[in-house]
Amino acid sequence: MHAHILATRPADDKHTADCIRNFVGDILLEFGVVQEGNTFVTDNAANMKAAFRETTWIGCAGHNLNLVLSHALQASTADAPEYALPDKVATLTSTCKELVTLSK
Asked: How many CA atoms lie within 13 A of 23 on its CB side?
């Protein structure tokens, strides 16, 4: 398996599926790497899924893990007290966030 970054460019148009598909397609054409079997890895946004629905698309495992952990480590809310984090975990998470903020 190989991963390649061909270009990083500002995308000024709206991030619709058509715009994303055309934007990526133009870059692939520019570099001469349009091939049958290219696989696209993105976040799980609906516009990304739609942009690559006619190709092989995979949701990014790192993004999925981040979503799961972000959700799992959120402090409880009044709406869902049954999902409360143990106090020690909530304190540890909060302290780590503060340390990261201070170190930046």
From this structure: 16
Q: Quick one: which of 56, 50, 6, 47 has its CA closest to 26? A: 6
pTM for the full model?
A: 0.66
Phi, psi of 58 (to 5 degrees): -130, 135
Q: What is the pLDDT of residues 54-92, one digit of tens each?
A: 999 999 999 999 888 887 777 666 666 666 777 788 888
Bridge partners (DSSP) listed for residue 41: 58
Quote helix, strand, coil % in the chain, to nearest 5: 50, 10, 40
Tokens representing 35? Answer: 């091939």
